[in-house]
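Person: Please comment on this record:
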Amino acid sequence: MPATPQSGAGAVRAALDAARRETLLPIVLTVPTTTVIGGSASLAPLHEALRSSGRRPGEVILTVEGGFPAERRRALLTGLDGLRAIGYLIAIGDLGSGHLPLDLLTDAAPYLVVLSAGLIARVPRDPRRATLGESVSSLARGTGAHVLAPNITHEAQLAAVRGWGVRLAQGPLLAPGPSGRVRVPLPVPQESAVGALLGPRVQEMLLPAVTLDIEATAEDAVEAFSSEPSITSVILVDEYQRPRGSLDRSRFMLSFAGRYGHALHGKKPAIRLADPPRTVPKTTPAIAAMQVAGKANERVYDDLVVIDEVGRCMGILRVSDLIRQVADHDSSFTK
């Protein structure tokens, strides 16, 4: 669980404690907005504690909590930008009952949003709090952030946050037992006969994806395609392994077929020639995936990119395989 310090010193103690206990990455530390506003002088002890413990900024999520004067908003955003530039992952904490303006999510562009523990504690016995939780969760996801529900103590709370679309949670209910294993209650199935009609989930059909960093050049992509003739696509991913571009083999290699193709594109970023990735969550039924594939006629046979709960690339799904699976499913279902 993240610490809830009243000053930067609390984050330092939490960092050293996590290092001693060899906590699994990433470390989640909570710092007050006033510490971030204080600039490099206020944050220097935290940087030093992490450095001495062997932790890198990219392995740490800094959760910012607490109110701040409106006139210090620019100083807070500047401090967050500085921490992000160093490599820290930025989170906004206590959303739902904390004293942070909601539009800070748009300006701060956090990696993670942590819902208020007090809000979670009153769900689901308080329908109005549940409505608030669902609303702020949707808002946070709409800004591109992942959402974490803390302090989960009952299965009813876990079911509620799942219903809001939240896929990250922590709390006593999910803590390791005496055996060291974590018991995660399964969601109550909402479909049976309907699910059978929609076919298997795409996670059962996915293939490994060939990925390149989003900053890779077109030459890098050519090399990837040339290494194996069966590669139908290359997926460009960001530092969090989220798909940001899709290179279809036929269209991409055609760009180099011309006389000056290599000269025009070779040293430049491959993302210039990429299409937006067509993503489907791993739990998407085959029939729903077929609908995604058919939305754009000019890309109807492009590979689909299968993503996990936090948007990371898990693999690809070839449309030809999808068609075959759906056809086989339909024939077996009608027998």
About this structure: The chain has two domains: 8-174, 198-334. The longest strand covers residues 89-95.
